Amino acid sequence: MTEDLAKIKDFRFDGDGEFDLSACPTSLEVPDEQLEFYEAALEKNAKKIAKLQEKLFAAGEEGVVFLIQAMDAAGKDSTAKHVLAKCNPVGIFDYSFRTPTKEELAHDYLWRGHCHMPVRGEIGFFNRSYYEDVLVVRVNGLWKGYKWPKRCFDMDEQDFFDKRFRQIRDYERYLYENGYRVVKIFLNVSLDEQANRFIRRIDKPDKNYKFSAGDLGNRAQWEQYMAAFQDSIAKTSTKKNPWFVIPADQKPVARYLASEALLKALKDIDPEFPEPGESAKQEMAELRAKLVAGEI
Ligand code: ATP
Ligand code: MG
Question: Whose CA is nearest to atom 4 of ligand 1?
Answer without folding.
Answer: 210
